[in-house]
Amino acid sequence: MSLFFALTIACYIASSLGYQGYILFQKRPIYRVASILLWVGFLCHTGVMGLQYLETGHVPVQNLHETLSSFGWAVVGVFLILQLKYHLMVLGALVAPLATLCVVIAAMLPRPPVELAPLFKGLWRTLHVGTLIVGNAAFAIACFAGILYLIQERAIKDKRPGFFFRRLPSLKLLDSMGYASLIVGFPMLTFGVITGVIYAQMVRPGQFWTWNPKEILGGITWLVFAALLHERLAVGWQGRRAAIMTIVGFVILLLTFFLFFLG
Amino acid sequence: MVEKRHIVAIGLNHKTAPVEVRECLAFSSEDTPKVLKAMCQDASVDEIALFSTCNRVEFLLATKDASKAVEAVKDFMAAFKNTPRQTFEQALYVYHGDEAVRHIFRVAASLDSMVVGEPQILGQIKDAYVQACDHRTCGVVLNRLMHRSFSVAKRVRTETGIGDHAVSISYAAVELGRKIFGELEGKAVLLLGAGEMAELAVEHLANNRAQPIFVANRTFERGLELAERFRGTAIRFEEVRDYLKQVDIVISSTGAPQYILVPDDFKGLMRARRNRPLFFIDIAVPRDIDPEINRINNVYVYDIDDLKSAIQENIDERQQEALRGERIVDAAVIQFRRWFQGLDVVPTIVRLRDKMEDIRQKELKKTFSSLSSASEEDRAAIDRLTAALVNKILHDPTVFLKKSGHKNEKTLYIDLTRRLFNLDESDEHEPEPRG
Predict the structure, then answer these.
(1) Which residues in chain B have their CB less than 8 angstroms from residue A161's CB?
(2) Is the pLDDT of residue A33 over 90?
């Protein structure tokens, strides 16, 4: 494990603790430190990915180790970018641990040598997996925002303002964050599906759609998010139902993701 | 030799006296100057301050003879208010010394208030103090005590969460609105009916830039009146259902005997609203809004009991914070005691002499270490010289301080001496009292 990778893991862990501490104690300086640590971790992680690219000559999305690590990187990246606009501080308490989990598991996984496909095919595969990773990262954040929304909504509906009511932001902010993540994620997902179809054409010419479980699940995921986006745009769906649908969509997405590597 | 001073607090508050007793004994701000002047005539009273609010009446005294002063205050209250002593004597509390200091600190810091942490009390005490200063009934002791209590109150407010979170119905409504809508700016408000609490809630929302404001009342004229007050629009009561499509917050406080909105009224409404959240604050008893409506997605209904229980948690939280406030008060009481005990002739003179002697010894040491050629005899001579200097310089001030003067002047001179020579070094620096 490279020094940079170790540094990344250390930063993510410390940042996770910081965000949890912020939720617990509500002290602004803790949040600031956690946020800076996450930025530092992200920069280190970017460095790791860059070095990997220089070393191996391919974008690190080929095996499970690389993909997980890239996914963690994308989650933090998307979060940090959205954070610039939405300042949803408590979300870090979910994002940082997820990123930590990804890089820790990635660190423990074996790294089988990658058999690179011929250049042209490889490009499509990289595009396919790369966009899906960024899309998934956005959906992960949408899912977290949805979970927080449901918790806060429960507190308000049940009229029991307690621990979470004080610490979570407004329903409006949580809903907007979910919506923004969806808008980032959906085009990525769509592009990922299209490039996937093109790549499949190269691997097995002539067979456009084979009805294998991966494809079916992938199709369902796309339909779920397409429906959600449509409802949001057309009839102004928001709140609880949108949050639940986002979470369901993300769970199916995760299944597809793991089926792809394990199945 | 001056006689020892005592600080005494006599009073009653919402805990010790029911409102019938409090209203009999409350002093208006026109009464206060008369009270202060009259009480100052009493030989046993050196300094006095009086504050009277709807929840408390407090006399704060500096006196040489505590028991006589207490009796004088009780007699005065009975005479001034034309009430027999036995009607209020049970409700009175009398605190002496440290306890009196602690009491005034706690009152100022709002630890003794009916709603712990409410911020008005400090302002009321400051006003009372300004009045006492205007009539020159506060001397060195009460000046110091009052200024101390202001700074203790400020510390308690900034260092504990005693003032955090809403503890009134209308603030709770605003806080909830923020949790639903993020910010209230530009959120449309509809007031159904009228009533003090509902109007207060609308006012708070308007202060948070919620607008436009609509008012619906059974009598349109009354609605117009209210709408004018909030710079809103009056609508007819029959139009309410239409307006539900565009408003975000509804505050309801009508005298209707049954629900005026039921779930059936919401068919198709949320679609027309594009699912934007709708927040009902139902202050009416009996209720105006069917609680079943709370089950509808993106609609939130809070009735008066819900708001009250939301506040209760905040009140409990404040109680926790109040404990931390008590610790700040405890420390301040000890600090004040140190200053107050020093406010006597003998300790002041001793302290002054100690300080001079200390300086003399230090300077001697410095001089001798650079004067290696000086003989034992020379050193003894220098030692005698400096000792004589200190004695001669301190002679007149000592005589002046010991000479008995007027009671208030005495304390003033002692306090001045202590400040002039910085004899209370451990004390933090205090700004000069006004007035």
Answers:
(1) 176, 179, 310, 313
(2) yes
Structure tokens at B144: 């110091």
Segments in chain B below pLDDT 70:
1-3, 166, 404-408, 425-435
pLDDT digits (tens, 9 = 90+) for B366-403: 888 888 788 888 889 999 999 999 999 999 888 888 87
**Residue whose tokens read 């979970």:** A147
CATH of domain A1-116: 1.20.120
Q: Using the beta-carbon criterion (under 8 Å), do A170 and B294 form an inter-chain contact?
A: no
pLDDT for B359? 93
Residues 51-80 on A with a CB inside 8 Å of B are: none
Q: Chain A partners of B275 at a C-beta cutoff of 8 Å? A: 235-239
What CA–CA distance (Å, rounded) separates A249 from A225? Answer: 6
Question: Which sequence spans correspond to the domains of chain A?
Answer: 1-116, 118-263
pTM of the predicted protein model: 0.70
Task: Give the amino acid at B427.
Answer: D
Tens digits of per-residue pLDDT, B178-189?
A: 999 999 999 999
Neighbours of B385 (CB within 10 A): 10
What's the CA gap between B329 and B315, in Å, rounded? 20
Rounded to whole angstroms, the Cα distance separating B46 from B59 reads 13
Angle at B7 between CA B2 and CA B11, to 5 degrees: 150
- The DSSP-derived string for B4-25 is PPEEEEEEEETTTS-HHHHHHH
Residue among A170, A175, A233 with most chain B CBs within 10 A, to mutate: A170
**CA nearest B317 in A: which residue?**
A162
User: Does the active-site annotation cover B54?
Assistant: yes
